[in-house]
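Listing S7. Sequence submitted for prediction.
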Amino acid sequence: MSTSAHNSPIIRASGLTKAYHSGEKALTVLDTVSFEVNPGKSLAIVGPSGSGKTTLLGLCAGLDTASSGDIELLGTSLPPLSEDARADFRGQHIGIVFQNFQLIPTLSALENVSVPLDLRKIPGARERAKRLLESVGLGHRLNHLPLQLSGGEQQRVALARAFVNEPKILFADEPTGNLDGTNGNHVTDLLFEMNREKSTTLVLVTHDLGLAEKCDGMIRLRDGKLISESAA
């Protein structure tokens, strides 16, 4: 990454397209979407179901590859990278929060949070995981398994896990989608609070316009196309 990259967008999507081929037919779920996000800003991706929001998030996070177009994070273009190189890049720079938590059922809250650091053999993983769980109000639940936790608590464990590698960019896919209003608000407040504290760039997919309006910028998708954009 060049030193000038700090002043340029941290995320740059150029003409991202994703098409699936089924026999003779091609289904385009994302059609030449371009946008930029500046460091430390937050961007909401909104649109009706089936508009391509989760597909776009997956491409931006390097979980999937585009049919055409480019996605650049921190000055690194993801499409040329191998799957292993993308996974390594994510491990170093990216945090992801999913709607369905994706915790490992056989591991305690503490173990779930320290996994990303354990995989990279980073010393002090447990201590860092413990501090983060305390910061999301779960210091008393360290040794509980996911099934022993409420939905709101599981999402807070998932948040702590997403922040444990001190990511430059956090992607969140419907982070409050499986929670009731009270828990949803609590997780949202935590998300923005931790984001500010750590100066992380946040990109989130949401159906909740109230949540989207808390972000610095918003892009709207319809039928895989970008129909409006306010800069972040």
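Caption to Listing S7: primary sequence and predicted structure tokens for the chain studied. Helices lie at 53-60, 83-93, 109-119, 125-135, 151-163, 181-198, 209-212. Residues 1-5 have pLDDT under 50 and may be disordered.
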